[in-house]
Amino acid sequence: MGNEKTELVIIEGNLNAQGYINVLRNHLLPFMQNHAPHVTLQHDNARPRTTQLTTQFLAENNVNVLTWLANSPDLSPIEHIWDELGRRVRANHPVNNVVDLRHALLVEWQAIPNDVIGRYVDSMRKRIL
């Protein structure tokens, strides 16, 4: 969301539908309930996000989902936010192993101001009009 962000959840290994549902259940749903109960979830069409299991979970939990075009990463604010996160990590942290990378990602995610996130979210409107 433009004025709030969730904690950064780092997934180790491959993400399947059940893993994605666990992230939704343990992180996204509580965040939405506390901060934004009436927002629409935007996620891409990667297989774990589009399975019947995931779709059913989202419906059962009354999560509105934005219909998403198959190849439209430039419309997704999160792609730009990942780029911002990567630039910050490279500029501020020596990364020699996975432990260093995890630490750097968590530190820099917390350091990204909400107004930066908000600008990326707001810029989506300009790109689709």
What is the compact description of this entry?
The chain has about 130 residues and is mainly alpha-helical.
Please describe the topology of this protein.
Blueprint: H1 17-35, E1 40-41, H2 47-50, H3 52-60, E2 64-65, H4 77-92, H5 98-111, H6 114-128
Parallel strand pairs: 1-2
Helix pairs in contact: 4-5, 4-6
Explain what the structure shows:
The protein has six helices and two strands; from the N terminus they run H-E-H-H-E-H-H-H. The protein has helices at 17-35, 47-50, 52-60, 77-92, 98-111, 114-128; strands spanning 40-41, 64-65. It is mainly α. It has a two-stranded parallel ribbon with strand order 1-2.
Largest sheet: 2 strands, parallel
Q: H/E series, N to C? A: HEHHEHHH
Basic shape? globular
Beta strands, count: 2
Task: Return the average pLDDT rounded to an integer.
Answer: 86
Low-confidence stretches: none
What is the straight-line distance between the termini?
20 Å
Cα-atom radius of gyration: 15 Å
Q: Helix segment count?
A: 6
Helix and strand composition category:
mainly alpha
Percent in helix = 55-70%
Which percent range describes the beta-strand content?
Answer: under 5%
Main β-sheet, spatial strand arrangement: 1-2
What descriptive keywords fit this protein?
single chain; 129 residues; mainly alpha; two-stranded parallel sheet; 6 helices; 2 strands; 60% helix; 3% strand
